[in-house]
Design goal:
The chain has helices at residues 2-7, 9-26, 28-31, 64-99, 102-117, 120-126, 128-131, 135-161, 165-172, 177-213, 224-233, 240-269, 342-350, 376-380, 404-416, 420-433, 439-443, 452-464, 482-499, 510-516, 534-539, 544-551, and strands at residues 282-283, 297-309, 315-327, 331-336, 358-366, 369-370, 387-390, 470-474, 502-506, 519-524, 527-533. With 572 residues, it is α/β, with parallel strands linked by helices. It folds into two domains: 55-269, MetI-like fold (Orthogonal Bundle); 327-350 and 371-551, 3-Layer(aba) Sandwich (Rossmann fold). The protein has a six-stranded mixed β-sheet, sandwiched between helices. Strand 5 (358-366) and strand 6 form a beta hairpin. It is elongated. The structure holds adenosine-5'-triphosphate.
């Protein structure tokens, strides 16, 4: 995290400025020529450059440079107290209010809503008799007034994260509440808290200065506010008295705000981004590749390279020099171990790689049209119409807020432009065709009301609705149980015959490959190692890795006694 922050020019510059200012402040007792309150009546309103008074002296003959240096310390202490109290109170209440039961949630919410209604600066002025004018006590109270900002951030993040599967997994693995909060929840809120703390430090400094400007607090304490107030009174006699503290206060608060912005860019930008449809993909490749493919090829992938930036910005290729082609009506199986690059290859064809992905080389031609470099609008004309997609996890591809029918109708209307009534008829017929026994009921159901197998049938119905020329199926049966897998497989086989679609089938499942694929491409660590028709790949695999994959198929009739086969570079 620190490496990332320091590599950002804005963060590095503002951090350096703040470090220099606050170190000078800390050294004030050693380097300041005078005490902050040492007055010399002979030096009243001494101009800039007076010997011993480089920035001049104020209306009481006090050295402005010395007071500035000591004021930095007052600002630092104010920021430290205000921010620490806000973070401690806000984080604790946010964790408790977000994680525990409804009563605790309502109680903390009510308390913090009440806190937010209090008039901040006015309250601090009113409480002066309580604080005795001590700016530290004032900043302590101000920390409570800042806490709702942190509380809201933490509470919302906790509410979002507490029902995640990994938090459930931690719970069932026996971790106590505080371990879960510390390990799984606090790590999520850390970034946003750091960002908010930077902004709050600036707010605390400005508020303390504002109070001092108004004369709230001890006159003995050197502070930017008190200096600005004194300079203000002398504005026409000695304008620079007003300039120096204003300038330094401006530099400190601007640096804190810019630092907060830079932290937000670096820390929030570092969160893993989900795959986004329509986010476009960055292509740095020259997409012109000699077209030596057979004219009947529907999809031709040539020399495809996909990379992701590593921690220090270097590109790591996860797909290299991939060549594939699929003819009209052909079913091509793309097999390989987990992480070999199958899904990346499929996603690049659909134009849905994550935004950080970079296509480093190659070309993807679909029906003689180059797909790489198309913008989202151009891709939208192809996706869902001519190229359709069936995902691995059907449930996560259906929006839980809408009924199944409404989601399918939306897709059909976008692809075909038919009326709502026609689209409904078509969807009901498709659901029926895809083996859903009560299409009307499924049409009116929410995703959580149907089973995984039904959800996959729904998505298959949606995918084939526009009679696409190419279907990309990413492990379409993996998330389903064995009997449902067989039914879905039957359905796919029937639909392929009926619609004469080409299919790119990404799978681990050799049974599925043997059943419906005409040809197979085998991928290993980002490269295609073997391509051939299904029969010859099964009968006589040429590559050692293909043999290893085939040898790993479980045989139901034989009890395996041999040790697992391995090849260099393959993971188990
Ligand atoms: N957003 C990402 N950032 C960095 N690397 C990524 C990202 N997405 C995928 N990869 C890497 O790309 C490689 C190929 O991933 P891909 O999902 O294509 O594998 P796969 O063969 O489909 O695996 P599986 O069968 O498990 O889905 C993996 O090493 C993975 O770590």
């Amino acid at each position: 995290m620190w490496q990332k922050i320091l590599r950002d020019p804005q963060a590095a510059t503002t951090l350096s400025i703040l470090a220099v200012v606050f170190v000078l402040g800390a050294l004030a007792p050693l380097i300041a020529p005078h005490g902050p309150n040492d007055a010399d009546l002979g030096m009243v309103n001494a101009p800039v450059g007076t010997p011993g008074y480089p920035l001049g002296a104020d209306e009481s003959g006090r050295d402005i440079l010395s007071r500035l240096l000591h004021s930095v310390n007052t600002a630092a202490v104010s920021a430290l107290i205000g921010t620490s109290v806000a973070v401690a109170v806000g984080v604790t209440a946010g964790l408790v209010g977000g994680y525990f039961n409804r009563v605790t949630q309502s109680l903390t919410e009510w308390l913090f809503a009440l806190l937010m209604t209090l008039p901040g600066v006015l309250l601090l002025v009113i409480l002066m008799p309580v604080t005795g004018g001590d700016y530290r006590a004032t900043m302590f109270i101000f920390g409570f007034l800042l806490a709702p900002g942190i509380y809201r951030i933490v509470r919302n993040l906790v509410l979002a994260v507490k029902n995640e599967l990994y938090v459930d997994a931690a719970r069932v693995s026996g971790l106590g509440t505080f371990r879960i909060l510390g390990r799984h929840v606090l790590s999520i809120v850390r970034g946003p808290i750091i960002i908010a703390a930077a902004f709050m430090a600036g707010t605390a400094i400005v508020t303390q200065s504002g109070l001092a400007f108004l004369g709230v607090g001890s006159l003995e304490i050197p502070s930017f506010g008190a200096m600005i107030s004194s300079g203000f009174r002398n504005l026409y006699i000695a304008p620079t008295q007003f300039l120096w503290p204003s300038l330094l206060l401006g530099v400190i608060t601007a640096s804190l705000v810019l630092l907060g912005n830079a932290l937000r860019d670096t820390l929030e930008g570092s969160k893993p981004k989900p795959v986004k449809v329509g986010s476009g993909q960055r292509v740095v490749a020259t997409t012109h590749v000699p077209d030596d493919e057979a004219p009947e090829a529907l999809l031709t992938i040539r020399d495809l390279g996909i990379a992701y930036p590593g921690v220090s910005g270097e590109l790591n290729e996860v797909v290299r020099g991939v060549n594939l082609s699929i003819a009209q009506g052909e079913v091509l199986g793309l097999v390989g171990e987990s992480g070999s690059g199958k899904s990346q290859t499929a996603f690049s064809t659909l134009g849905v790689l994550p935004p950080e992905a970079v296509i480093t080389s190659g070309s993807i031609r679909f029906q003689d049209r180059e797909m790489l470099g198309l913008n989202d609008q151009q891709l939208a004309g192809v996706r869902g119409r001519e190229i359709a997609y069936i995902p691995q996890e059907p449930m996560s591809n259906l929006d839980p807020s809408f009924r199944v029918g409404a989601q399918l109708v939306e897709g059909v209307r976008a692809a075909t432009g038919t009326s709502k009534a026609d689209a409904r008829e078509r969807v009901l017929a498709l659901l029926d065709r895809c083996g859903i026994s009560d299409p009307e009921r499924t049409y009116d159901s929410y995703p959580h009301e149907i089973s995984g197998g039904m959800a996959q049938r729904v998505l298959i119905a949606g995918a084939v609705a526009s009679r696409p020329k190419l279907l990309i199926a990413d492990e379409p049966t993996t998330a389903l149980d064995v009997t449902v897998q067989a039914e879905i497989l039957d359905l796919l086989r029937d639909l392929l015959e009926e619609l004469d679609m080409a299919v790119l089938l990404v799978t681990h499942n050799f049974g599925l490959v043997a059943d419906i694929c005409d040809r197979v491409a085998v991928m290993k660590t980002g490269e295609i190692v073997e391509v051939g028709d299904t029969e010859s790949i099964f009968a006589a695999p040429r590559h050692e890795y293909t043999r290893m994959l085939l040898d790993s198929i479980l045989d139901e009739d034989t009890v395996r006694t041999d040790p697992p086969t391995t090849v260099e570079g393959a993971t188990s």
